[in-house]
Every structure is written in structure tokens, then in C-alpha cells.
Amino acid sequence: MMTQRNKTMRLILMTLTLLGVLFASGCSTTPKPNLNLQPPLHKAKDTIKESVEYAVDVYDPIEGFNRRVYTFNYYFDKFLYLPVVNSYEFITPDYVEDRVSNFVDNIYEFNNFTNNLLQLKFRQTAMTLTRFLINSTVGIAGLWDPATSWDLPQQTEDFGQTLGHYGVGNGPYIVLPILGPSNLRDTAGLATDAVAFAAVIDGVQSDWMDDNDISLIFNGVTAIDKRHRQSFRYYQSGSPFEYDMIRMLYTTKREVEIAK
Fold first, then answer.
1. What is the DSSP letter of 32?
2. Residue 240 included in any domain
3. Tens digit of each residue's pLDDT, the chain (260 residues)
4. Neighbouring residues of 176: CB distance < 8 A, sequence distance ≥ 6
5. What is the pTM of this model?
6. Range of the domain at 86
7. How far apart (Å, rounded) are the C-alpha atoms in residues 192 and 179?
8. Residue 105: enclosing H or E segment and its boundaries?
9. How many CB atoms lie within 10 A of CB 46?
């Protein structure tokens, strides 16, 4: 009886020891460096030889170039962008991160207002203006967002959607460096929004701070905040068709946003 009991206790101890070793190795904060700088996944056509039909046919005449930019974005994201964002998230309390996000959203209500107006969506235009006034005053410079809780949700629009609203087609699919998936129409819209926004910022800047200082600080904060709120990580889908899926999802998403 004692022999059997001893065997049982020994088995339990061995099991606990093994689990402890596995737990420690899985939670180690000093993993071995990964010297393989190749992307985790390769192009789908390198993995299988079969042709694949997708739900959305996307015009992608510069696919080879786009795939190389996609790979560049992976490296940029992994070795530069995400380390900065992770440091921001580590240093900054969640409460402060929320205030920053609200402030950025409030500033960019200008784009929402302009594009809703250009699309003759007068109700959404009035709602956007009301949101800005409420959040800029009651919300203290947009650091808080009482307008949403008062049944005034954000009416997000951009010039790419405005062009689509008036029948401008997607054009060829484009992967932009750092910025990611786009198309010719949306790239033109992005540039137009950026120029218009910069012109407005230049018009309202105060004399006590250099123009370049304001632009650099705001653009840096906006870039970090945008990536902080984006959960997507390159090559974590586990699919060799990630590029194709992102292309399809982006195109479908834009079609839905334009049709609303």
C-alpha cells in the first residue's frame, strides 16, 4: 500500500515539476534572438499551385510592387513603428491614452465636416459640427467625448469616400509605404484631405509656437495614436493568402463605407 502511494506521490511531483519547467520557459522574458529576418509567410503562389477565386475581384496591375511594399511595411512595423507604440503604451496610462485619442478625433472632425458637406449630407454635417462644439467646450478641447454619450456619434468621412459618392471608381489597388492598403482614388483623397487639413492648421496656429513644432508634435502624436488603436499585425493571420485577404477586405470595406 505504501509502495503504491509512494509511486503516486512521485508521479505527481514529476508532473508538477514538468509543468513548472514548461511554464517558466513559456514566460521567460529573455527569449533567444530570432536572426531570421524573412517574413513568416511567403506569397500564396509559392505555397500552392492551384488558382484561387476571391469574392471580390480587385484590379491589381502592380501586384509585384505592392507585395514588396507590403513586406517593407512588415519590417517597418516590426522594427520601428511597433516598438515606439509599445513604449507609448507602456509609459502612458490607459486613461491618458483615451484622452489623446479623443483629442485627435476632435481635431479631425474638420475632415468629417468638410466631406459630409461636400456629399450634401446635411444632417451628418450638422451633427459633426455639433459634436465638435460640444467636445471642444464641455469635453475640454476634445479630451473627453460627451457628444457620443448624448447620441451624437461620429460621422466619419474622407475625400476618397466623397469621390466614390460621386461615382469615381477605385482605380488600381495600391499598397502605400507605412500607410498600408489603398487604391488610386483613396490615395488622391488622402492627399487632398492632408493638404486641406494642413491649410486649416496653418491658418489657426498661434504665434507663440513655431509652425514646424506644431506640425511635428501633432503628426507624431496622431501617427502613434492611430497605430495604437489598430490591432492588425502583419503576418499573424496564419494564412499564406494574407496579402490577398487584406486586399479583398480593404476593397469591400471601402465599398460599404461609400454606400452608407
1. P
2. yes
3. 445 555 545 544 454 444 443 333 334 444 444 545 667 655 545 544 443 444 468 999 999 999 999 999 999 999 999 999 999 999 999 999 999 999 999 999 999 999 999 999 999 999 999 999 999 999 999 999 999 999 999 999 999 999 999 999 999 999 999 999 999 999 999 999 999 988 887 766 655 455 667 778 888 999 999 999 999 999 988 889 999 999 999 999 999 999 98
4. 69, 182, 187
5. 0.77
6. 63-259
7. 15
8. helix 94-107
9. 9
**225 in helix, strand or coil?**
helix
Report the alpha-carbon distance of residue 36 to residue 205 in Å, rounded: 47
Domains of the chain: total: 1
**Dist. CA 34–CA 46, nearest whole Å:** 23
**Calpha distance 179→164 (Å, rounded):** 20
Q: Is residue 13 part of a domain?
A: no
Largest CA distance in the chain: 89
Report the alpha-carbon distance of residue 101 to residue 107 in Å, rounded: 10
- State phi, psi for 174 to the nearest 5 degrees: -135, 135
Place of cell 487584406: 246
Per DSSP, the three-state class of 181 is: strand
Examine residue 44 and state whether it is found in any structural domain, yes or no.
no
Identify the DSSP state of 170: -
- Whether residue 52 lies inside any domain: the answer is no
Task: Name the nearest CA neighbour of 180 among 258, 53, 71.
Answer: 71
CA distance 69 to 165: 29
Strand partners, 173: 183
